[in-house]
Description:
Blueprint: E1 18-21, H1 29-41, E2 45-50, E3 69-73, E4 76-79, H2 83-94, E5 102-109, H3 116-119, H4 121-131, E6 136-141, H5 151-168, E7 174-180, E8 190-193, E9 199-209, E10 215-224, H6 233-238, E11 241-248, H7 257-264
Parallel strand pairs: 1-2, 1-5, 2-4, 5-6, 6-7, 8-11
Antiparallel strand pairs: 3-4, 7-11, 9-10
Amino acid sequence: xxxxxxxxxxxxxxxxxxxxxxxxxxxxxxxxxxxxxxxxxxxxxxxxxxxxxxxxxxxxxxxxxxxxxxxxxxxxxxxxxxxxxxxxxxxxxxxxxxxxxxxxxxxxxxxxxxxxxxxxxxxxxxxxxxxxxxxxxxxxxxxxxxxxxxxxxxxxxxxxxxxxxxxxxxxxxxxxxxxxxxxxxxxxxxxxxxxxxxxxxxxxxxxxxxxxxxxxxxxxxxxxxxxxxxxxxxxxxxxxxxxxxxxxxxxxxxxxxxxxxxxxx
Length: 265
């Protein structure tokens, strides 16, 4: 069975109204970087981000308590919820009378590569925007082995990436996931269109006992399964390139539908 045709991209005005969000929180340095990037693209930039760090929140909604919106300035707001909450409330309430034309999420402190995208609040914010038919790009700055985060790399290269993507456009049911390599801005080799690689977070579980004698578990460690396959996001950043990956929200494996239909008949 052929996959359904992708929805056509929504054209953007010359001066798009931008919504900037993240998962690292309203005070994160990466958010400040992306605000500056956004202001180089448009004169109208709105910021709606979580009050606190929400890394690993994935595409979660807050359903069992009320959410509060705290206005920090004319176009800057903090919400005591997840990245998904932030985009939902930004589109439905904060910017209700001024709809966003483009959502930028990040810049995340650390990579969102391979299966990271299923855990990532940064990517989830872009996902929520895409569900509202608003084009969205997620940005992450790779930082390996506890090195100092090279924010200038993301700041210098993000405007060009945005410009090229907006010129070409992308389908309405697709978000764009961008990862900047752990290199100085001038040492970046260029950009590559990539597919999602394979690696798994959390294989290494460290079991310990705290000073009060209570056991705890610390999740850590990454396993890379694809051997840095050429063409993957993991391979691109390892080679010093900016990885640009289109992510489709329809997770149905269409080639398997006929097999499943036969199995359950």
